[in-house]
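User: I'm preparing a small set of examples for a lab meeting where we compare how different chains pack in three dimensions. I only have the primary sequence for this one, and I'd like the structure in token form so I can line it up with the others. Please keep the answer compact; I'll paste it straight into my notes.
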Amino acid sequence: MDTLTHIVLGACIGEAIAGKQLGKKALFLGAFAQSIPDLDFVASFFLPLTNDLLAHRGFTHSFLFVALIAPLLAFASRRIFRAAHMSMGHWMLFWGLQVFIHVFIDAFNAYGTGWFEPFSHYRVSFNTMFVADPLFTIWPLAAFIALLALGKTSIRRKTWTRAALLLSGLYLLLGIGLKQHVEHALNSTLTAKKITSQRHFSTPTPLNNMLWYVVAESDSGFYIGYRSVFDSKGTMDMHHVNRNEQLLAPMQDQPELGLLKRFSQGYYTARHWHDTVIFNDLRFGEIRGWADTMPRCVFYYDLSYPDDNKLIVQRGRFANWDAAALKAFVRRIGGI
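Assistant: Understood. Below is the structure token output for the 336-residue chain.
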């Protein structure tokens, strides 16, 4: 999830766990606690870009990290915040639950989270929520503002905290339910069009969970389509893109290519772009793919000129999003 979501969600959880003991300090300690796993961003200062892709949401997003960091921070907190009169177990709950919830909810979007590092490099990804979704974040954000304004003894603090956590939790469940609806339409489409697919995924498009991006793998490449929960047709329109593995053959010895393939979990294509070969990770979607017949992928890596790659996961995400593009996006969400 995005940084703002972790901050305000952590503040609300901090209030719920230790508001009575810490007062409003619980909000800020909670915000900090919820942000701890993302300290892996420091790796970007010294790791090559492709290695950094795998370092992010790696060990600091693992269950082992949760188990290690909780007692260490609890031990330190017992000595720093003696006036709070919180037991070691209470502090371990505070830090451990915050970090656990961070790594848990990060698995709901497409990037993938290394729950089992360093024992397994498998990335957990439920693909039920976009990395930033206003309808998930708005509830803890509103509660955070209210909790800052309310007095520390106000009985309304508990109401705001419970409401925010409940509504955010229900929104997570809604995403799971909507994914099942989309998966049903995808399976109907594959059957109706007689498409043989070894595996597939579906994931929400930017900032909502009503319009979904769907990719099904075939022998030669992938079938890609979009499905709104408001679409009336039982099946969906899908177009085919070739994997173009042959374009990568001259670059098989490049370490970057092996890391990119691992990061993409096999959902990739290659294409010529001017005088270079581009590696596309399909999991992060296309740039305006629901309205563009020849879209580019949000994630692309220039294999011919690797030094030209900087931010690659979200670059181009909102390219050419003018008023007309936004209107088309909203209409497509509505099933039009």
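A couple of notes for your slides: The first strand starts at residue 200 and ends at 204. Strands lie at 200-204, 211-217, 221-228, 238-242, 268-273, 276-286, 297-302.

User: Perfect, thanks.
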